[in-house]
Amino acid sequence: MTDFLITAIVSVDIVSPDLETHAAFYRDVWGLDPVEHVGDARFFSGTGRDPYLLALLPGETLGLAAVTFRCASEEAMDVVAARAEGAGCKRSDGPDATTRPGGGKMIDLREPNGSLIRLIHGDTLRAAKPSKMDRAERLSHVNINTKDVDGLANFYADVLGFRQTDRSKIMAFLRCNSDHHAVVLAEAPCEGLNHIAFLLPELEGVMFASGRMCDHGYDIGWGVGRHGPGNNVFSYFVDPAGYVVEHTADILQVDDSYVVGTPADWKWPPGRTDRWGIAPPKSESCKAAQVAMGFV
Question: Is 189 exposed, middle or buried (0-12, 13-18, 19+ CB in 10 A)?
Fold first, then answer.
């Protein structure tokens, strides 16, 4: 197995114009747990060991503020940061200690397309909570919009040390551990956030979590279905602020023997939008939301 410099996606920061309403949604409807913290941001954990999965930052300009990845060691973090600077990224000072939940040392990098990538090492993992099938354990992946899929995929591979696992007509899938993908890059007319995916422990949990969303008046934007690349079950929603979020499960586990797929490998019959052939077309509101969030 490849020794990755980055070993996991940990969390995502997004900007919220109404912290109280947004926080209530992620606590009471989406099913995350509030985390004690310092400062104005709101932090939420899953049932797994990561200190937090989601940070809501106060602000008026919606968008993706940061994606945090855990590095294998402080030395690995320095290697990635040095490579990134050589590739044109702007780097903050560091590694510096952080007061965010979990602590650890952190470096911020602004990659050439505009996304803030946060590297962390030495954060204190939480004690895992009892698993609940309809509650997120951890993040599965983040999907980033870009005008140059292959160029950004090369950056993730050559600079950050990810490996590409599949390439569909409009998306590149990249991994940093045995999960089929931690980052997905989607061809779009803009740079920004497409969606955030939260991993549930089983397929039936996606169904129950989707039902809970429907009970609270949130229509399924796409799904329930099964993706091609990654083979994961999915159900997409638009949150109260307009961000697209996904419940997912059954992500394919791969190793270095996995054969990278090409667009020719990922074609469906006319009218089909998922591997099973049961997911209806994506809603217009979901499609619009997937290209509405830039980088902050």
Answer: exposed
